[in-house]
Amino acid sequence: MPTWIFVFLGGGLGSVARWSIARWLTPQEGAFPLGTFLANILACLILGILMGYHIKHPMAHQHRLLLMIGFCGGFSTFSTFSAETMHLLKAGNHLLALTYVGTSLIAGLVALYVGLKLMPQ
């Protein structure tokens, strides 16, 4: 089976998961984009857990493609994050946009670190 199939399947599952979270937590116009924020932070946490697991128990290449690249890549979304930030800026919500960017970056890094630490090495 071609390796791209694993990325394709994982990406599709991750995208559906992200879409579901966004529908569940759809913010009001001009509000903090909680759905995208949560999806991105969860994707970082999951990726950290998978990376930590892979260090101790090396995963097959296909599993890494499916889960780490496909699912986590489809579950997180830099383009939507960027569009929502731009929308906040255009609406004059500069402080909220800066808060969104800062908390996304810091929380994403912390979540990845926590995920790594959850898997004892």
Main structural class: mainly alpha
Helical content band:
over 70%
Largest sheet properties = none
What is the typical, i.e. mean, pLDDT?
94
From N to C, what is the helix and strand string? Answer: HHHHH
Shape: globular
Walkthrough of the structure:
- This protein is an all-alpha fold.
- The chain has one domain (4-118).
- The protein is 80% helix and 0% strand.
- It has 5 helices and no strands.
- Helix 1 runs antiparallel to helix 2 (34-56) and helix 2 (34-56) runs parallel beside helix 5 (94-118).
- The chain is globular, with a radius of gyration of 16 Å.
- It starts with a helix and ends with a helix.
- The model has no long low-confidence stretch (mean pLDDT 94).
Please name the defining characteristics of this protein:
5 helices, mainly alpha, 121 residues
